Fold each of these.
Amino acid sequence: MTDTTIEAPATPRLKQFYKDSIIPELEKEFKYSNPMQVARVQKVVVSMGVGAAARDSKLIEGAVKDLTAITGQKPKITKAKKSVAQFHLREGQAIGAYVTLRGDRMWEFLDRLLTLALPRIRDFRGINGNQFDGNGNYNFGLTEQTMFLEINPDEVDHQRGMDITVVTSTKDDKEAQVLLKHLGFPFKEN
């Protein structure tokens, strides 16, 4: 007989940092009696609108390929709900794609975003800290996909921006901002 040991997959670095350092700090800061009251990141939604896909349907394939490479998960394609003649848009036509990340994949994406992608933005001074939605969720946009190392700049067919939404378990914007600041989000100083 052979002894085979199965190793558990490694815990993402940012998730371990959250468990070890951030939860105790937030417990002290907000005077929680229970660690389950501390705000958590529940999911991250990365979406890419491709308005030009109304004229050229191949552009949506490039967006799907880029989102798959960036997030490691196949995106869901969004379709137009109504026809709009001025935009040459037909009902049911593909106009965007999005990915919802949860669990370890979410933590690994946030780690890559904060440590590798955001510092690669030219003349980066931080992200706007006023883009909370009133329910503890943070939304921000990026102008191009080439800041991610998974995208080869030589193979980019079209420059596409993306919107990223970080959904937290708290309903308070201040508490969510403190959580994201502890995670390493580089907010601008106003």
Amino acid sequence: MVKKILIHGSGHKAISWQETISYMKDQKNILCPDLYSILNGQDATYENLYTSFVEYCSRIDGQIHLVGLSLGGIIAMNYALDFPEKVKTLVVIGTPHKIPKVAFEIQNVIFRFFPKSVFKEMAFDKKDTFALGNSIKKLEIADRMQEIKCPVLVICGEKDRANKKSVYYFSENIENVALCMIEKTGHVVNEENPKELARILNEYYDGK
């Protein structure tokens, strides 16, 4: 069976997928890498994180289904562009098509006033969150969207205003794409509406 790899965002950990997975079929073939763990002690830059993810996927035989939320969606798209023969399907959730540089700068200013304890529930500690945010601003993949050839499902919460525009960008620039807007749901779809997300994913994979 084709493995499904679920990639969390920077504000959450791998455990954030737990409830969604509990409603999904074929659970034994679902993997949830912890982004902090796969870095193996390296600096938390996007380059190191992406390289670590590439190495993680290289240990999996055959094709894979990729599902990414926010930062996880960016990593998944990046991987699908670089290794098209490896990716059978791609699902991106609450994912921007272009790195919101200004938003990252504002976020970093706000984060400076947060105590370190706030970051315990996030994927990275305070220092690593800043490092990742600063390094990812250099990433440019929007102009490569038309190169994605595998089937793509774009999911977005109805209340996720920051990423709604990206949904339409994806629809216009990816050849084999399907769109799904989840009502009464914000950015963190896997935690806010896990049962509905699982239903959508189960239905999507039934056709693959």
Amino acid sequence: MANDPSLSLEDFCDALYDDDRLIGIDLGTKTIGLALTDSGRQIASPLETIKRKKFTQDVERLLDLCQEHSVFGLVIGLPLNMDGTEGPRCQATRAFVRNLAQKTEIPITYWDERLSTAAVTRTLIEADRSRARRAELVDKMAASYILQGFLDRINYGGTSLFEDA
């Protein structure tokens, strides 16, 4: 897509070193869920939910966390429609990434996030979490779900895109 600063999956993986950590992002209109990988990039764990304020404040918090956790790559959930087409939420996500890329050199790629929130919500309901507790957890857990899907693909999806992974 024109003017899209994100990298393809292969180019993103080529830009990383073996021990680089990643942050997964579930971008919502009111919150930004974040998840973090371990240094071996095997496991994604929920990290934090940023309550959206203004773009600059949101990005400052994100980049502070990237620095704090030595993160060298961002995996952004792309909210495709069920038929694979892009709607208004995809456009908003791509606009966020275009603006984010002006603030950082950290490589960025997209990952299909269809049904991530639904899957996490179902898990929380099965775990008998209250509605309030689900609301508190769902965004960062959705980010973890997105990031784990990415990790599983690159590490176990037939051939690893990381040479020493």
Amino acid sequence: MQYAPSDLKPRERYKVLTSFVLPRPIAWVTTIGPTGVVNAAPFSFFNVFCEDPPLCMFAANLRPDGRVKDTVINIRRTAEFVVNMTDEPLARAMHESSGDFPPEVGEPDYLDLKLAPSTKITVPRLADAPFAMECKTWKEIDVNGDRLLVMGEGIHFHIRDELWDHAAMRVHMERYHPIGRMFADRYCRTDDRVVFPPAEGAKTAV
């Protein structure tokens, strides 16, 4: 089976990409509106791309009715946001926050999600997130006028204490249960893991 992207409608391309590029990490992005309402919205076209500086990027398309999403409006006003990661206890609330909420209704308030102050920006983080990264906008890329790629520089990290081995600088994987996005309303758990020995590389004859 083969396709040329030009032969597919945008929605069909979306279905092909999201059906095979998975599981995808989810950026649960908190922003703050002009009246102080805190918005929380999940984005699964997301990942980290660099560590020096620490950069992440997510894609925000327009709403089905053509309106710009509150997340984008808020980021363009403040140039600040927090990327919160999701684990199993938070997964249902994360999914519910993807619904349609008017700007005056904050998802954290509506879904009884606890907020905590950030350290270097005004936007609060989700207090129960296993990992949260305070971000300043690094760059924006407009795609065809209907999608915005938001690149953020992580300027402060928050890690749930029991998840991190500070001495080894390593996550306790047996305690961290992230949720991945599949497609449509489907998600996956990530506890079925495979560990390989270190790769040996090419073996040369002696």
